[in-house]
Write a structure and sequence with these properties.
The N terminus is likely disordered. Helices cover 34% and strands 31% of the residues. It has 6 domains: 149 residues; 77 residues, no CATH class; 86 residues, no CATH class; 49 residues, no CATH class; 80 residues, Resuscitation-promoting factor rpfb (Resuscitation-promoting factor rpfb fold), CATH 2.20.230; 132 residues, Glucose Permease (Domain IIA), CATH 2.70.70.
Length: 610
């Protein structure tokens, strides 16, 4: 709701004119007071000057008559001067007394008391009364003028808001009117802003009297709303409103009733007679998230009310229906981005899905659709999952403080004594730490946005120095990434077809891949077995003891690469090819990790394909 532009302009002109008139009156009164003061001051000065001249003249004339006569006359003149000085001091004291009375009692009562003092002085001393009449009265007049001017210039003013010639309120400044308009706008939505129901108002500046009450924006908003309601009832003109996106002419539907139109993100949700229960529900919802540190609470959907629009009776619903919709659960897409260390099995498990259900989800990488996410699972791939979430979710913003690591730099130098693909660390790198202060926005319990406010380095990172091998290996070293795990992904591609502990005493994982696919050492170490044959069901296999004492087993190979017992191999070095020898069904690599103590470890704690 806003004031008509022409009304605003007229109001500004009226206020400016009133202010100028008041200032002109005040200026005139000050000028009059100044003039009277100047005249009185000039008269006193001229009187003293004439008296001085008279003294000099008389003195010169009386010198021939004798020195004694001159002394007598001079004494009379000095007495006159002393009397005049006393009179002046008396006037000053009287003015000071009058000024104090004005401050304490007000101008009216001060004048009464001052006139009472003058009357007493007249009664007690007739000669003094003459002096009072001749000198004090002008001073009192000047004091009266100054007091009136001071009273006028110190008066408080307010902005009068008028509508249809009637004052609906007085506010301290025009900004209060703008705030009141916003309050009304928050309460209502009008579709017909060009009709007679569009309220206009006149603004004017007025001095505040004892009967005037300065109101705030809430009280003014109520007064404006009352005028709008009255005008709507009295206007009796057709008003076109929108119901469910369709224009409806009130005049053509006399059976319609006035109600509040509720919209959610601009869509019609229903019409209600009252919306207090809805507001209470929303406030209660917000209160659940009003924890310490929360600086803002809102909703992910915009809920609005159209103030008393006309709708058909069958469109009016109970508030509980709107509340039930707001409090319901819906199924909506949730997007998951693959990060380092993820694998299809864990993503499926975390979302209560089977591998087949995960594969049915739409997935893409760099804008291209992935046909089988269980086989191709790159970091950065986006999977569209689905889950039940609240229809209306609370958005909260918190100011949080946390620490974050700072990556260290790695400086490499070549070493011909170390095999290619391997390296040795001379100085261990250490991550730095920084303290971060940020505003984090949550949708429900999930962080959806972070705005960093400040960062402070707590500790600087320490650079790592490595000697990287350049010595050629017997077999080539893979140039691929080797996955994102601690150890190198042992197969050139493939996918996990069986997991450890799958109900049949499986001691590792099976990685299915086509016959002849290269197999690489997952970590540097010494070959302790490289044999063809049955080998207890492992078939053609390779066993490598790592430098830290762990042992990796590679089974069911089709053939071995050019390696043998006792050779030292590096991470990523070719050791054989995928097959189906031994106790095997289908081409795959059976891969195990054993601890230095002989226990079987889950290989997925060490390797990850993507």
């Amino acid at each position: 709701m806003s004031i008509h532009p022409n009304a605003e302009k007229q109001a500004e002109n009226n206020a400016e004119l009133d202010k100028k008139n008041i200032l002109s009156i005040e200026s005139a009164m000050v000028n009059i007071g100044t003039l009277v003061t100047y005249i009185c001051s000039s008269a006193i000065k001229r009187t003293l000057a004439v008296a001085g001249c008279a003294v000099k003249t008389v003195t010169r004339k009386l010198i021939p008559f004798g020195k004694k006569a001159a002394e007598v006359f001079a004494e009379k003149i000095m007495n006159f001067k002393r009397s005049f000085v006393g009179f002046t001091e008396s006037i000053a004291a009287s003015c000071k007394k009058f000024s104090g009375r004005v401050s304490e009692e007000g101008l009216g009562k001060a004048l009464v008391l001052q006139l009472s003092d003058i009357g007493t002085a007249i009664k007690n001393n007739k000669n003094f009364a003459k002096t009072v009449i001749n000198h004090v009265v002008p001073v009192a007049s000047i004091a009266l003028l100054i007091g009136v001017v001071a009273e006028k210039t110190s008066a408080d003013y307010g902005v009068s808001i008028e509508y249809n010639g009637q004052e609906i309120g007085v506010v301290s400044e025009e900004a209060v009117l703008n705030e009141a308009q916003q309050v009304v706008a928050d309460r209502v939505t009008y579709f017909d802003t060009e009709s007679e129901t569009y309220i206009t108002a006149t603004l004017s500046l007025k001095p505040l009297g004892a009967q005037d009450e300065v109101i705030d924006e809430q009280m003014l908003a109520d007064a404006i709303q009352e005028q709008i309601d009255t005008q709507i009832v009295e206007a009796e003109v057709p008003v076109e409103v929108e119901v469910q996106g369709e224009p409806v002419d009130v005049a053509e539907n006399t059976n319609e009733e006035r109600a509040y139109i509720v919209t959610i993100d601009g869509e019609f949700a229903g019409a209600v007679s009252e919306y207090t229960a809805i507001e209470n529900f929303l406030e209660t919802k917000k209160a659940e998230y009003a924890d310490e540190g929360v600086i803002d609470i809102s909703f992910d959907k915009n809920i609005e009310y159209a103030y008393e629009d006309y709708v058909m009776p069958d469109q009016i619903v109970d508030e509980t229906e709107i509340i039930e919709k707001l409090d319901s659960l819906v199924t909506e897409p949730v997007y998951y981005e693959v990060v380092k260390g993820d694998n299809p099995w864990d993503v499926a498990m975390d979302n209560d899905m089977t591998m087949d259900e995960l594969n049915e989800c739409f997935a893409s990488y760099k804008g291209e659709e992935i046909e089988d996410i269980t086989e191709y699972f790159p970091i950065g791939a986006v999977i569209q999952l689905s889950e039940e979430v609240p229809y209306l979710q609370v958005m909260t913003t918190k100011e949080v403080e946390y620490t974050e690591s700072i990556d260290y730099e790695i400086v490499k130098t070549d070493d011909p004594d170390i095999y290619k693909g391997d390296y040795e660390v001379d100085v261990e790198g250490v991550e730095g730490v920084k303290k971060v202060v940020a505003k984090v926005t949550y949708k429900g319990d999930t962080a959806v946005a972070t705005d960093v406010i400040s960062e402070e380095v707590v500790s600087e990172p320490v650079t790592e120095y490595r000697r990287v091998g350049t010595r050629e290996t017997i077999t080539p070293v893979s140039e691929g990434s080797g996955g994102s795990g601690v150890y190198f992904w042992p197969v050139d591609g493939g996918y996990i077809s069986a997991y450890m502990g799958d109900g049949r005493g499986h001691k590792g994982i099976d990685i299915a891949a086509p016959y002849g696919t290269p197999i690489y050492a997952t970590e540097s170490g010494t070959i302790t077995q490289a044999e063809s044959g049955w080998n207890g069901g492992y078939g053609t296999c390779v066993k490598i003891k790592h430098d830290n004492g762990e042992v990796a087993m590679y089974a069911h190979m089709s053939s071995l690469a050019e390696i043998s017992y006792g050779d030292y191999v590096v991470k990523g070095q070719l050791i054989g090819y995928v097959g189906s020898t031994g106790d095997s069904t289908g081409n795959h690599l059976h891969f195990e990790i054993r601890s230095p103590y002989g226990s079987y470890e889950d290989p997925l704690d060490y390797v990850s394909q993507y």
